[in-house]
Amino acid sequence: METSKYIVAKNILALRKYHEWSQATLAKKAGISQRTVSNIENPPNDPNYSPTLDNVEKIASAFGIAQYHISIPVRLEVLVDKCIEKTIECYDSAGIEGRENITRVAENEMRYSVKNKKIG
Predict the structure, then answer these.
(1) In this structure, which long-range contacts are made by residues 71-75, counting pairs with CB atoms below 8 Å and at least 24 apart in sequence?
(2) What pTM was estimated for this model as a whole?
(3) Number of structural domains the chain divides into
């Protein structure tokens, strides 16, 4: 299982490349140093380095997403279309039966997606 700093690193790198930004561009937009961006994106270079929540929040803000999105192990397309926010909002506002239905639909979709990948 990936640690949170590796998930954060992978997501930030993927988002930065998606936006076609250099580390320097992201640093400027986030108001942090390019070295900080580099340290966050490359955790194996310094295993003792851990990004601060403040810096992760600044980076998330530069991308126009919530800080916790960067910590979720999801595909880039999910981060980019920002559907996580709506999914959490729906799940949070639903009652027990509604949450069970949402979970059931999600599980069925996962099975359907896996089945179609094997066929296609």
Answers:
(1) 71/4, 71/7, 71/8, 71/11, 72/7, 72/11, 73/2, 73/7, 74/11
(2) 0.79
(3) 2
